[in-house]
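Table S2 (text version). Query chain:
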Amino acid sequence: MRKTWIAVLVAAMVLASGCSSKETEKKETVKEHKEKEVETVEKETEELPYRFPLTGVGSKEESSDRAVAVIVNNHPKARPQSGLPEADIVYEVLAEGGVTRFVALFQSEKPEKVGPVRSAREYFIGLASGFDSFFIAHGYSPEAKEMLERGEIDNINGMQYDGTLFKRADFRKAPHNSYITFKNILKGAEMRGYGMDKAPEPAVFLIGEEAGQLEGTPAEDFMVSYGSPSFDVIYEYDADQQKYHRFNGSEETVDLESKEPVLLDNILVVQMNHKIVDNAGRREIDMKYGGKGYLFQKGKVNEIQWKNEAGRIVPYKDGSKAGFVPGKTWINIVPSISDVSFDSQQ
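Corresponding structure-token output:
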């Protein structure tokens, strides 16, 4: 898989070298425009009086909105998904059968629709709890059902609200067709009497020139393997936009409706011990005791250690918290740090 990825990149470079001078000139103009856009966003972020707690991006008003966590399907039959470009943080983690699912956290932006929505696992609930999120899923494992029924996290579930708050799309087949609008998320919270006006504690972000002075090993393109071409992830850094694009295999991760790509500022890959615990292939994942990881930012990578702090996965470098670049964050949880591959000779 990685050889194919490298071959594609090399082929793209060869094709690019054959561009005419006019095409090159046009690309340089687009590049300059993108660079100015990035500079404008960074300047506005520094000048605005408030910051969104999970992105660190500047805001004119202080945000008091509660975070919402939605379990999003990543089966090939569920792609492309709806709402992911608006997520502040996405955790990608294995479920059964080598399939990954997303715990997508929304706070600074509210997409019109999110989905397809899939079922909960106990470790999904643990990740969402670290942000005091309102938890949205459709279905559950036996362990997750017990946790939800005990009230460990405020939630609504498609098992109780299928056809009312959750709607089935007619262009996909179950279980890959359950969607919920943000309007119905808020309606569900009101129905259950849950408050939605307390923002999560802010993450640690790099301020001002700190983001531009990041040190690290060059690693603009890299792969996170989940053992199957359908779920292996490739990230490619766009130096003009100063953001990463995400691909499952050869397909870029985009929004179903808008076709807008997921653009990321931080990618954190962390190793956690995984264990199969039943005949259905369900897993236990050790999210408590910390371990190894990589933090990719602005085309560079640093080795980190992660800790679980009140349910959040927090990166540390040289004994101190490693700040995030203001923007969107994707966190890949893998059984082994050797599942990450990148070419540092760039």
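Notes on Table S2: The two ends are 20 Å apart (CA to CA). The chain has a mean pLDDT of 88.
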